[in-house]
User: Which sequence fits this backbone?
């Protein structure tokens, strides 16, 4: 049974961009702010309070399952941001 909150296409794209940003995060004020704020409420994103968004562990896991299409606990052979 599906028990996770649905992510719109725009939110999946915003999550992917956030994961690609890595340790520097994404600055606030971008077009994907509404998606990042929405995902912050879901626990996938955190705002550092200084104008940057960062992915959480939960967000990384969701990104892997939904965007990269990998199973829980597994990593892709060559992760794009490593």
Assistant:
């Amino acid at each position: 049974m599906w028990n996770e909150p649905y992510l719109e296409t725009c939110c999946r794209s915003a999550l992917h961009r956030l994961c690609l940003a890595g340790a520097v995060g994404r600055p606030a004020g971008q077009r994907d702010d509404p998606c990042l704020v929405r995902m912050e409420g879901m626990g996938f994103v955190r705002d550092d309070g200084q104008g940057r968004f960062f992915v959480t562990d939960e967000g990384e896991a969701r990104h892997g399952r939904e965007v990269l299409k990998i199973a829980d606990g597994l990593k892709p052979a060559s992760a794009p941001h490593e």
